Description:
By secondary structure, this protein is mainly α. The protein has a single domain, classed as Four Helix Bundle (Hemerythrin (Met), subunit A) (Up-down Bundle). Helices cover 72% and strands 0% of the residues. It contains 5 helices and no strands. The radius of gyration is 18 Å and the shape is elongated.
Amino acid sequence: xxxxxxxxxxxxxxxxxxxxxxxxxxxxxxxxxxxxxxxxxxxxxxxxxxxxxxxxxxxxxxxxxxxxxxxxxxxxxxxxxxxxxxxxxxxxxxxxxxxxxxxxxxxxxxxxxxxxxxxxxxxxxxxxxxxxxxxxxxxxxxxx
Length: 144
């Protein structure tokens, strides 16, 4: 299915926009893994990072803890997003709902990360709701 939205066809080598956004979501996941790991290494040192990490570690500091929680939060919904986008394409249900839903999900997750890292309340939760609404839109497309 060739998706045309607002008169524009697919970019990125013919990939549908929601598949491109899926790729960006995977890149975001890698970035979050790296940021959380770097923050934790900054706290405990390179020797800890290179070592076996046996025994108990002190609890993470503010920034590392926030980045680790933001990563865990992404990993709660990312499998659902991956599955919904791929199912939409397999079932030939990709269209405006998946297009806009994927945009809301990915851009919401991108904005969510610095808000969480900086400890911004309320707005962070609102952005999470926007991203989750995007995920719901992609899932809803499977039944449309």
